[in-house]
Structures are given as C-alpha cells and as structure tokens.
C-alpha cells in the first residue's frame, strides 16, 4: 500500500529500516510516494518518524525549527544552516541521539539551556550568528563534543568554561573573530587536533597552543604575528601549518623539528631567509613562500625530495640553487614576478614538473636559444612572445597539449621543435600567418 510521506518541500532525509538506508528528496514541486506495508497512515508516519536519522533542511527560509523536524526523536544528523532561525527551542532536548547539528548562518541570539542536554552531540556549528556570548557557556555541558565551530560571531574572548569541560574536543574553529589571545585554560584541550584562528587580531603567537601536542592542523592566517615561538617545535604531530599574511621576519629552526609537517604556508610575510635546517622537514609536500623578501634559497631546500608544490611568486629571486633539480617530486612551481633575467636551466632537470609559472620576470629579450626538452610540461608560459630574438625553442619530449597563441608574435625566424605522440615536428616561424596555418595542419593530422 502506498502512503504519502508528509515533509516540507526541499528537504532531504534518510530512513533506516532493518539496517537498510533509504534516501528521499522532496523538491519544491513534487512529493515522493514510498511503498510501505502499513495498515494505517498513522502507523506509517510513526514508522518513518522513528527511523529518520538524517535531515537536510538547509536554505529553506525557516524562521523557526519546524515542529515536524522536532518530532524526529531518532535523528542523528540535522542540517539547518543558512535559514532565518532566531530561536533554538526548548524542544531541542528531544534529540537525544543527535550527533551532528549545523545551525550556522542563521539569526540566533541566545543558546537555550536545553541544548546542553544533548549528551550524544559530537559536532556543533553555530557560526555566523549574532550570538550573545554569555550564552556560550551552555556548550560546556555537552561533554562528548568533538567538533565546535564558532566562526564569525564577533568573539573577543574565548569562554574559559569551554576549556574546562570539553575534554573530548578535537576541532575548534574560531576564524573570523576578534580574538587577541587565548585563555591559559585552553591547555586542557589535550585531544585537540585542529585549531582554526584565521583572520583574528593576534599580535603574538598564542603560546598555549605549543602545549597541545596532539595538534595536526594550526591555522593562524591573516593575523598580525611578528614571530613564532621556539616552543613550536614541540608540536610533534603537526601536519599542516598555515601562517600566511602575517608579519613574520624569521622562522625559528625549531620548526624543523616538526617531522610530520606536510603543508607549510608562509606566504605574504616579511621573511628574508629560511633556516638551513628546513631539509629536516622530510614529509613536506607543499610549501608556500610567495610574497616574501627571500632573494635567495638555501641549498638545503633541494633535499625536500617529497615536495610536490612550491610557490615562490614575488620573492626577489634571480637564481636557483645549483642542485634545484634534486626536487624530483616537484609538479607545480611558481616563479612568477621575480627577477630572473635568463631562463633558470636548473628547472630542466625537474622530471615530474607539470605546471611552471614564469610570468612577469626580467628575462632578457636577447635570449636566442631556449632548451626545455625532456620534461613533463603541459603548457608553456604565454610570455614567450617577449623573447624577440629567440631563434631556437626546443620543447620536445614533454606533454604539451598546445603551444601558447602568443608564440605567433615572435619576430624573425624561429625554429620550434615539438613532439606530438611519437612524431617529432620542426616548425619554422617566418611570419604569423605561415605559423598558424602550418601548426593547424600538423595538429589535425595526429
């Protein structure tokens, strides 16, 4: 027998019957009928009500949490983000099985005491609400909470009560607030693995973080930090460190004790040099150094054999270390907006390189021969047209998908050697129209 499932349009929910999960979606124009063996409509409604464990009712213009949702007592995950909800009702306490609750991007001002009764709640997001900060203490009663996101709530002080009672917290999101410091009690969060403090008002690194040795991700981008503490080396489990757009002038060599560090972003600072011990970061695969004042790289950086991505845009570089080709895993390299006057031939030994940015440099327009064969380049820089005296461009044995259109603007007679599949072609450019016709003919004959 078919019975109508009554649910507001636009909702997505999941029902579990005998360990079989069924996902249902009701759009704005249709209602979905589900065949269920039930004697009465009320019997079916109760059956559904006691089996719905997931509900997505985001972006539905709700001004309050619908009663039909509050009746779903077995709910485990509820998404109500991006609505117009102003109040968390007392009936929220009905969700005794709920583990994930997203209420971000609403108009909520106060957190009711009943929210603290959700003892199975593991993940809570109240970001982007005009919250009364005093009501945040209610959250301290949710002792099993593992993830707490409070982004963009104009928070100036992190509540001490949360530090004292949320012993299971693993993720703390406080980005886009007005924090200048963290309370000493934050060291109680011994299980914390991720902390996000981007775009706050920190002028000094919150030293308490260095005591949280379980941390794997630290994000302090877009603050006003001038230095990193030597104690940062105690973060032995650190995997990702985001410190871009601060005012750092040096990096302590103790950072190189973080042996598990895989992603390090130091872009947009005031760095003049890197520690020679950077070679100790053997696990590093992504390094961002753009928009600093380095002017040169330590040769030891070439020992980072696992490095895949290296951003060096606008760093004042004019040369590369002689052993640069030892970065054998490098696939993406950004050297744009630097001071190179000649093409750095050290790049030609990077056998895995796929993306190279060299735009806006000072490369001499007198360059006559350029050899970048036997790499994995997929594209060539569009600025090749600036090499007005180029006579030979050898780019065979690459993975070029096409040549840049700007190559047609090269003056004089240019010999271009390219490889398509297993066929090597020599293209002679004597004027734009000849090259375009010739190249189109070659490309279409593959």
Automatic annotation (TrEMBL):
Q: Where is the Disease resistance R13L4/SHOC-2-like LRR domain?
A: 253-358
Source species of the chain = Eleutherodactylus coqui
What SUPFAM superfamilies does this protein map onto? L domain-like (SSF52058)
Classification of source organism: Eukaryota, Metazoa, Chordata, Craniata, Vertebrata
Pfam family of the protein (one): LRR_8
Domain of life (superkingdom): Eukaryota
Name this protein carries in UniProt: Leucine-rich repeat protein SHOC-2
Q: What residues form the membrane-spanning segments?
A: 414-437
The alphabetized UniProt keywords are:
Leucine-rich repeat, Membrane, Repeat, Transmembrane, Transmembrane helix
Q: InterPro entries recorded for this chain? A: Leu-rich_rpt, Leu-rich_rpt_typical-subtyp, LRR_dom_sf, LRR_domain-containing, LRR_R13L4/SHOC2-like
An example Gene Ontology cellular component term from the record? cytoplasm
Is Hydrolase one of the keywords UniProt gives this record?
no
Q: Which SMART domains match?
A: LRR_BAC, LRR_TYP
């Amino acid at each position: 027998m078919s019975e109508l499932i009554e649910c507001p349009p636009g909702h997505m929910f999941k029902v579990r019957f005998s360990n079989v999960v069924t996902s249902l979606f009701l759009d704005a124009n249709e209602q979905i009928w589900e065949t269920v063996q039930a004697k009465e409509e009320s019997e079916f409604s109760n059956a559904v009500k006691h089996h719905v464990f997931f509900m997505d009712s985001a972006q539905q213009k709700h001004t309050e949490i619908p009663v039909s949702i509050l009746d779903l007592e077995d709910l485990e995950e509820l998404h109500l983000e991006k609505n117009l909800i102003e109040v968390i009702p007392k009936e929220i306490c009905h969700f005794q099985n709920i583990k994930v609750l997203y209420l971000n991007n609403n108009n909520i001002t106060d957190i009711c005491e009943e929210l603290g009764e959700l003892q199975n709640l593991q993940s809570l997001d109240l970001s982007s609400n005009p919250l009364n900060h005093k009501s945040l203490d209610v959250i301290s009663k949710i002792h099993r909470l593992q993830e707490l996101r409070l982004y963009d709530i104009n928070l100036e002080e992190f509540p001490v009560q949360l530090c004292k009672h949320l012993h299971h917290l693993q993720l703390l999101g406080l980005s886009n607030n007005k924090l200048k410091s963290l309370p000493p009690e934050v060291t109680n969060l011994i299980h914390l693995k991720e902390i996000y403090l981007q775009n706050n008002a920190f002028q000094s690194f919150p030293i308490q973080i260095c005591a949280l040795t379980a941390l794997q991700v630290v994000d302090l981008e877009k603050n006003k930090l001038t230095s990193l503490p030597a104690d940062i080396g105690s973060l032995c489990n650190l995997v990702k460190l985001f410190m871009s757009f601060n005012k750092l002038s040096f990096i302590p060599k103790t950072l190189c004790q973080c042996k598990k560090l895989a992603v390090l972003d130091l872009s947009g600072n005031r760095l003049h040099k890197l520690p020679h011990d950077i070679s100790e970061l053997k696990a590093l695969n992504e390094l961002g150094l753009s928009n600093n004042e380095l002017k040169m790289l330590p040769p030891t950086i070439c020992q980072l054999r696992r490095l895949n991505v290296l951003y060096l845009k606008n760093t004042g570089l004019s040369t590369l270390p002689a052993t640069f080709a030892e970065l054998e895993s490098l696939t993406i390299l950004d050297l744009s907006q630097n001071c190179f006057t000649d093409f750095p031939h050290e790049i030609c030994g990077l056998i895995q390189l796929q993306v190279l940015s060299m735009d806006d440099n000072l490369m001499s327009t007198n360059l006559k021969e350029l050899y970048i064969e036997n790499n994995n380049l997929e594209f060539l820089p569009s600025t090749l047209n600036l090499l007005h005296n180029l006579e030979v461009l050898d780019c065979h044995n690459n993975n070029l998908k096409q040549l840049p259109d700007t190559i047609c603007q090269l003056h004089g007679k240019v010999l271009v050697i390219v490889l398509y599949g297993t066929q090597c072609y020599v293209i002679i450019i004597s004027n734009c129209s000849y090259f375009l016709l010739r190249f189109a003919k070659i490309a279409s004959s593959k």
